[in-house]
Each structure stands twice: as structure tokens, then as C-alpha cells.
Amino acid sequence: MKPEKEITIYDIAKQLGVSPATVSRALNNSPSISTSTRKRVNALAEKLGYRHNTFASSLRLQKTNTIGVILHELNSYFITSVLAGIEKIASEAKYNLIIVHSAENAALEIANARNLFHKRVDGVIASLSFDTEDISHFNQFQSKNIPVVFFDRVFENSESTKVIINNFQAGYDATSHLIQQGCRRIAHVTSSLKRNVYAERMRGYKQALLDNKLKFDEKLVIIDGFKEQDATRSAKHILSMKTLPDGLFITNDFCAAVIMQILKDAGVRVPEDIAIVGFNNDSIGKVVSPKLTTINYPGFEMGQVAAQSLINHLKGLWNINLTNTVVIKSELIIRESSLKSGKTA
Known about the structure:
The protein has 345 residues and is of the alpha/beta class. The chain is 42% helix and 14% strand. It is built from 12 helices and 12 strands. The strands form 3 sheets. The chain has a 6-stranded parallel sheet with strand order 2-1-3-4-5-11, sandwiched between helices. A 4-stranded parallel sheet has the order 7-6-8-9, sandwiched between helices. α8 runs parallel beside α9 (196-211) and α10 (228-240) crosses α11 (253-265). It is elongated and about 90 Å long. The protein starts with 8 loop residues before the first helix and ends in a 12-residue tail after the last strand.
């Protein structure tokens, strides 16, 4: 079936006996056009099925009022929280979002960046995939003065604008809490140390051990993914150890919940035998038994700060290049999974 002809402002102008310029101004609610004319134009436009050519307007104005968001995954409480924060600020400022995700793949991340570049987004908010080696694919935005704000997973030594938490301190606090509970053989379950978030949490873990005169043992570090099958593999690794750890610092709450259940099914008592601390403050931590001690990672606030920084720059209210890094506060939330003998400090 042949598609219907696209209705233009010239079609509307011809039927109403007015100029195309009048129709254009009326459709854009210009105060120079009378209320009655605006009503007539909009009524006929709706009747005829007129669609505003946003792309053409964007080319004329050299802006699209669109922000590209590159995520490393979508199936995550933290990421959905960040996205909610971004969407709130963007919506209030009348910006649209184009959301893409890399599925933890650098090649797809590069393709997504190129796609957003060709869609002429006004700015980009991004979190890097597991295996991203560099951020040269974001240089194309810089060449056109298109601002980019990175969040969560970033290259900390780059000059790019970043919104993060103090992952070193979070790792230090989580490990110190387990030590305060009497744990002396603490295993660390984490993921790709190429990413700043996991490398810095590991650094905090090691520093807490050092400060408390506990020896760091590489055999107690498990590096894997955070999906259910990955967590299952990590749990079996822990159970296979000749001497079980008495504490676990796991840098993902879902992974921690899966590991905790497998340990319990194997007869391990939590926290009496093994105390557990997770990370992110996902909702799952409040429904598992025992409830999960975790690090609160304020995703919604992180999304708000990233979006507001970008939009303020786009509006000329602030130059994001003046501030390389914004650090959002995180905190340890103590629940039953880590409390040996009822100790809280």
C-alpha cells in the first residue's frame, strides 16, 4: 500500500488562506499570532495528521534538545536509579533522552557513541563497559564541543568530567566493619579490575587489612561477573576453600544475595560462620534473610548531578570543564548479615 503524502505547513496554509510563515508561527505558539488563528491552525494540523519536522528544526537551530545516555547494562537496580535521576532533571529542562547500552562490550559502546554522534545529541552521559580500554571514541564529541559527563565507571586519571563515589573509602569502610566484627580471614568477591570502581574498592579492602595488621592473601580474592551463574561459581569457589573465610566483602548486592543463599544451603551460618557485606543498597538486600549489610550507592542522586551538570553547561550557566570530578557521598548501612555476636562497631 502506498504511504500517504506527508502534510506540510504549505498544505495547511493553502487550506486556511494564510501564509506558511503564519502557520509556522502558530504551530510554535508565537504571541505574534492571534489566539483564534492559532486555534484554527492547530485544529487543522491535527485533523490532517501534520507532524512537526523536529530534525529540520534542529538543523536550523544547531541543537536537538536531546541527551545521549550510554549505559553498561540495563538489568541493575543501581542503573535504573541513575536513569530515573537523569530523566527527572532532563524532563524538567525539556530535554529528551536517547538511551543505549553496551551490554558490557567495548565494541558495542564504540558503535553506540558513533550512533549518538550522528544523531546530533547536544550532550552525552556515559558509564563505561567492563572491557573498555580507552575513551578515544568520545573524542568525536569533544571535536564538536559536545560535552560528555562520565559517571560510576570512569577513567579517574582522565581530564573528563566525572561523577563518582569514593570507592576506596567505601571498600575500606566495608572491610573495616568486618574486621570490627572479629573477622580475620576476609574474602573479597569483585569484578574486572580494569574498571575504577572495582580497582578502588579492592584498594580500600587491602588498605583496611594493612591498617589492622592482617595479611593480604590473593587466594581470598575472587574476580568474576555478577550474574546468577557467576555468583554461583564464586560461592562454589568459597566452599571449596580448605579453610573457609569468616567474612565476605562482595561488591554487588545481587551477587551477595545469591552467594549467601548457596552458603546457607550448604550449612554455613550467616553471620555466625561467615559475615557478609554487599554493595549498592539494592532492594534485594532488604528481603533476603538475614538482611544484607551494604554500601549505599546513591544512584538517583548521581543521575541528577550528572544530568544537572551537563544541562547547566549546555545552558551556559556553568562550565563543566572547571570541575573534573564530583564525588557523591556513600555510606555503610549495617544490617544482620554482618553482625557477629550483636556487635555494631
